[in-house]
Design goal:
- This protein is 80% helix and 0% strand.
- It folds into 2 domains: 31 residues; 55 residues.
- Helix 3 runs antiparallel to helix 4.
- The model has no long low-confidence stretch (mean pLDDT 83).
- The longest helix is centred in the first third of the chain and has 26 residues.
- The radius of gyration is 20 Å and the shape is extended.
- The protein is mostly helical and 111 residues long.
- The protein has 4 helices and no strands.
């Protein structure tokens, strides 16, 4: 909260005069809900059920989708290094999921 307050005070002079149209305000509200609130709630809820390595991989997944949205929505061209990093993150997520199902299937319970 203190960081948000300091950030707001520092950027306040740069935002005068306030000229946000209703469309701009609705876009900002949508970003606040769908880009901040929902992912944070999901991350907190999933942290109770998923192990820490999977949570950290899912956090990297957000970075991959951010780049994909910028590429698709704004026409930005990612470099080969960015694409390689995205492939590494996605491959790690897939292999981690595959390894988790494979190792949980090999566990034999004796009753």
């Amino acid at each position: 909260m203190i960081g948000a307050l300091v950030s707001s005070l520092v950027t306040l002079p740069l935002s005068v005069p306030f000229q946000a149209s209703p469309r701009d305000v609705s876009l900002l509200a949508g970003l606040g809900i769908f880009q901040l609130a929902l992912p944070c709630v999901w991350a907190v809820r999933l942290a109770r059920q998923l192990p820490a390595p999977e949570i950290s991989l899912l956090a990297l997944f957000e970075v991959v989708f951010g780049i994909a949205w910028a590429w698709w929505g704004a026409g930005e061209e990612p470099t080969i290094e960015v694409l390689t990093g995205g492939v590494v993150v996605l491959a790690t997520l897939v292999l981690n999921g595959w390894w988790g199902t494979r190792s949980s299937a090999s566990v034999v319970t004796v009753s």
